[in-house]
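FIELD: query
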Amino acid sequence: MSGARQAVRSIGQGRLMLIVCLFAAVFVVFFPARQLVVQRTQLDDLQSRLAQLDVQNQRLQRDIARLQDPAELEVLIRERLGLVRPGEHGYLVVSPDASPAPPPVPAIPAHKVWWARVWSAITRVVRGKG
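FIELD: result
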């Protein structure tokens, strides 16, 4: 009987060793493979971001080259800033339908606690500033 027990025990130990080897193989193969997949995904994301930045860089280089031209600068200054040359007269045409913008509402700082914001609003109304 002891020989049969030893045979069963050796088969059990063999299976245990096989399971341990399989787990070791999974850890040796799976985790580096998973890390490789994650790194490839990050690489793809970074390459697409690089392509976007290259396109943006090319556009900005074209803008820089365009803004080197004094005639283009003059057009931009006249359009955006409304500047005129000495001796010229500039006119501002206002639509009769244009209404004046409402005065800005003073902002209550958000970093105060709620009761301090309420007190500030009440005192501002009492003083006639709200």
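FIELD: remark
The mean pLDDT is 80.
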